[in-house]
């Protein structure tokens, strides 16, 4: 049970990191984010992404523009704010440290 | 043909079928309620609505159709995920995650309709108890033969246990944690299942079970279609039959009331079981019984008329009125039943001794004139001995006014004097009443030389009510006295059966026995 909880925490952090990474590549529409996350097998249902995006936006990491769509209503396209870019950079650093730590730990145990 | 609605969702106008609309509305209400807890609810909900609208337009575009159907809504909800799927994701407080993780790993009981034979009770239980489902099914089928208890238990569980609908519930049923990892696992399971079999992941796991399950589902579907179509004809036929039966019963109810209340004097009130009811209660009691039976019959007739001829239901005021009258009649009836029942509270009996003239041989007989004899059956050309020995009614005013109420015992007398002890007993409101009923019993016993002639039943006097009046006769005979007992007396004998003796003891329909120190014995002992 504790293991599962740890997994949840890890996945949660990584999900946020991945969302930021995907958005950092340029303006992107929510359902395209979902498609990418789904292909990465990180997300199952779309409904869970919207609360996350809203939270990131409210924290000032994201902003969005309304873009007219050829089919249907205008869409929200998300971009990173300068704050978001800064946080992503620090997250990159953290990820490097983490993957180093894990690689190191694994090698140690393998020896 | 289906009714469609126009809805405005996410600033798009969508044509949607009515049942699909209901499903969608329920879903959106759930979503709103879920996100209403947080401050950003409006934005999240409108994001979700926009996305749903977009999915709808995509569906309409790619499938080249005009209207969103229920299946489309189901697909969209599946992609979006249900509210329960959101719950474990949207928590931002890490403290909550512990409780959630804890809650979701606890195995919960649900019905598993994916692997169901009927309603998924057994498969759901098998997940919960971690047992093999086939064992549970065998137990369930066997328990049906234990007085149908299994069937009842199944129905109760069917009603009591909810069906696992969302992925979260399905995972809780299998005891998996409902977190992202768990979701992924179950999702991947489904995906890999889909690859192997396009229809259903479970189909390749349990082809046989699923097939028979499909059969049952199909069977129910066919039955439903049958009832909708040709079933209507059958319903109408049943309605007509019910209408006719109801009318006949109602008519006999009316006739019975008329007979009891004495359209003229019918004498029916002297017959059992009508003679239980006190004369003073009779009118009101029989009217209340008439209404208690009659109104439901009337309701049955009206209902079947409605079904058979599609006529309008009767006026609401009239039906409430009838219900009210019925309740009044029912309570009156119950009141009198209780009242009459209280007249059976006390029992009283008294005994009288008759000395018999001494003879070495006695013949015991039930009054011949009341018994259907062989000669009678010949006379009435009844080709059967079935009737022989049965008590019949004579024309001379005798009425069948009570159930069996005469018993005869044959015992050894204390001295050398033969005697007959007659015990009259009856029930009543109190002891005095019971005793007076007992005193009013008329019973005919005649000794004609050595012939002891017993009447076949107690007769109630006119204006006496049946209060379980009984007569017990004890014939006390000195040791060595011989007896010839008529066969038809056997049914009145207590503590002894003539059939215990050999056939050799019977001479012309009479059994021959002898009184010994140990009581009545057969003349010729059984070998």
Can you characterise this structure?
The complex is a heterodimer of chains A (111) and B (527). In chain A, helix 1 (2-24) packs across helix 4 (82-110). The two termini of chain A are 29 Å apart. The radius of gyration of chain A is 16 Å and the shape is globular. Chain A has helices spanning 2-24, 30-39, 49-58, 82-110; strands at residues 28-29, 62-67, 75-80. A three-stranded antiparallel β-sheet of chain A has the order 1-3-2. With 111 residues, chain A is an alpha+beta fold. In chain B, helix 1 runs parallel beside helix 3 (70-80) and helix 13 packs antiparallel against helix 14. Chain B is α+β, with helices and mostly antiparallel strands and 527 residues long. In chain B, strand 7 (445-448) and strand 8 (451-454) form a beta hairpin. Chain B folds into four domains: 4-97, Orthogonal Bundle (Helicase, Ruva Protein, domain 3), CATH 1.10.8; 113-200, no CATH class; 232-343, no CATH class; 346-522, no CATH class. In chain B, strands 4, 7, 8, 10, 11, 12 and 13 form a seven-stranded mixed β-sheet that branches. A four-stranded mixed β-sheet of chain B has the order 3-6-9-5, with helices on one face. Chain B is elongated, with a radius of gyration of 40 Å. Chain B is built from 16 helices and 13 strands. The interface between A and B is large, with 33 and 45 residues.
The general outline of chain B is elongated
Enumerate how many helices of chain A there are, as a single number.
4
Rg of chain B over CA atoms, rounded to whole Å, is: 40 Å
Number of domains of chain B: 4
Q: Largest interface, with Cβ-Cβ < 8 Å? A: A-B, 33 and 45 residues
User: In this structure, how is the largest beta sheet of chain B organized?
Assistant: 7 strands, mixed
Mean pLDDT of chain A: 83
Structural class of chain B: alpha+beta
Instruction: Note the quaternary state here.
Output: heterodimer
What is the helix/strand order of chain A? Answer: HEHHEEH
Strand arrangement, major sheet of chain A: 1-3-2
């Amino acid at each position: 049970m504790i293991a599962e909880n740890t997994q949840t925490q890890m996945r949660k952090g990584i999900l946020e990191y991945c969302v930021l990474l995907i958005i950092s590549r340029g303006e992107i529409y929510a359902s395209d984010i979902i498609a990418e996350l789904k292909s990465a097998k990180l997300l199952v249902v779309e409904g869970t992404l919207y609360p996350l995006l809203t939270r990131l936006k409210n924290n000032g990491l994201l902003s969005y523009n309304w873009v007219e769509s050829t089919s249907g209503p205008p869409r929200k396209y998300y971009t990173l704010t300068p704050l978001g870019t800064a946080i992503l950079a620090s997250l990159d650093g953290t990820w490097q440290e983490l993957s180093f730590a894990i690689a190191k730990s694994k090698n140690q145990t393998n020896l | 043909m289906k009714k469609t609605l126009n809805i405005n969702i996410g600033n798009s106008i969508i044509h949607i079928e009515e049942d699909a609309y209901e499903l969608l509305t329920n879903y959106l209400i759930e979503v709103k309620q879920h996100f209403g807890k947080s401050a950003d609810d409006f934005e999240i909900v409108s994001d979700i609505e926009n996305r749903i609208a977009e999915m709808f337009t995509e569906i309409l575009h790619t499938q080249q159709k005009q209207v969103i159907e229920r299946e489309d809504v189901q697909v969209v909800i599946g992609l979006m995920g249900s509210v329960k799927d959101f719950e474990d994701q949207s928590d931002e407080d890490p403290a909550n995650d512990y409780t959630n993780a804890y809650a979701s790993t606890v195995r919960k009981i649900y019905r598993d309709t994916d692997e169901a034979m009927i309603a998924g009770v057994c498969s759901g239980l098998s997940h919960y108890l971690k047992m093999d489902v086939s064992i549970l099914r065998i137990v369930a089928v066997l328990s049906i033969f234990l007085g149908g208890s299994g069937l009842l238990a199944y129905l109760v569980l069917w009603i009591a246990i909810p069906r696992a609908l969302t992925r979260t519930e399905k995972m809780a049923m299998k005891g998996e944690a409902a977190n992202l990892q768990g979701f992924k696992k179950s999702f991947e399971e489904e995906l890999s299942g889909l690859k192997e079999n396009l229809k259903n992941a479970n189909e390749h796991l349990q082809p046989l079970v699923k097939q028979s399950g499909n059969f049952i589902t199909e069977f129910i579907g066919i039955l439903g279609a049958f009832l909708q179509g040709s079933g209507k004809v059958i319903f109408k036929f049943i309605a007509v039959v019910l209408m006719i039966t109801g009318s006949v019963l109602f008519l006999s109810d009316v006739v019975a009331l008329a007979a009891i209340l004495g359209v003229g004097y019918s004498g029916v009130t002297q017959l059992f079981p009508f003679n239980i009811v006190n004369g003073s209660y009779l009118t009101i009691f029989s009217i209340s019984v008439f209404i208690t039976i009659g109104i439901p019959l009337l309701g049955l007739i009206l209902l079947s008329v409605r079904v058979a001829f599609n006529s309008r239901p009767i006026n609401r005021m009239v039906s409430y009125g009838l219900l009210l009258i019925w309740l009044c009649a029912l309570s009156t009836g119950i009141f009198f039943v209780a009242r009459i029942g209280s007249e059976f509270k006390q029992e009283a009996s008294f005994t009288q001794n008759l000395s018999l003239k001494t003879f070495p041989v006695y013949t015991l007989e039930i009054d011949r004139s009341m018994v259907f004899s062989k000669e009678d059956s010949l006379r009435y050309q009844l080709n059967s001995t079935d009737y022989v020995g049965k008590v019949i009614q004579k024309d001379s005013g005798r009425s069948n006014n009570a159930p069996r109420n005469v018993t005869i015992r044959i015992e050894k007398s204390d001295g050398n004097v033969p005697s007959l002890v007659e015990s009259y007993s009856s029930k009543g409101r109190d002891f005095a009443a019971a005793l007076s009923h007992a005193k009013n019993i008329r019973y005919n016993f005649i000794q004609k030389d050595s012939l002891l002639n017993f009447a076949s039943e107690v007769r109630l006097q006119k204006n006496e009510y049946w209060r379980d009046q009984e007569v017990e006769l004890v014939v006390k005979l000195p040791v060595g006295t011989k007896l010839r007992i008529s066969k038809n007396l056997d049914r009145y004998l207590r503590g002894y059966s003539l059939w215990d003796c050999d056939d050799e003891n019977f001479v012309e329909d009479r059994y021959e026995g002898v009184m010994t120190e140990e009581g009545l014995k057969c003349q010729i002992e059984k070998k």
